[in-house]
Design brief:
alpha+beta, 2 helices
Length: about 180
Amino acid sequence: MRTVAEYHKKLSQSGFTLIELLLYISITSIILLAVSAFLSVLLESRIKNQTIAEVEQQGLHIMNIITQVARNAEAITGPLPSASAPFLTLDVAVSANDPTVFDLSGGTIRITEGVGSAASLTNARVIASAFNIQNLSRPRTPGTIRIQFTLTHVNPEGRNEYNVSKTFIGSATLR
């Protein structure tokens, strides 16, 4: 039979001491904390990139529509030459779409073709602002406009990764 001292000696040789156990737990905790912090930063970066892409895609889409319609228009009827306005009125070739108007209302950029109702060019995830059209036309030249607007991603919680705003500037000349 074994004595208590022999049993205790055998047990202490095969197990961990309290200090070793605390050391292993602290090292594991540090590693898990570092991995979770890395994953958190990675997730925030992914969300930020998606938000930037959303604003970029919508801005480029709106700019393409406005410039395409303007290039194919017959005349710029508003704003007047050498003036700026928060709208663009174009005389287009298709009489059902005449006039075609681009404007800003309630944080959305809209298009109205002919007597139809206004259609939004932006979705609910962005807010448009600072929509400005400058008519750069000169006498005896095709009309030229400068387009400028700002899109800001909707951020009701105020989180940094959704805080994206970009100003788009472009121009178009009638053909």
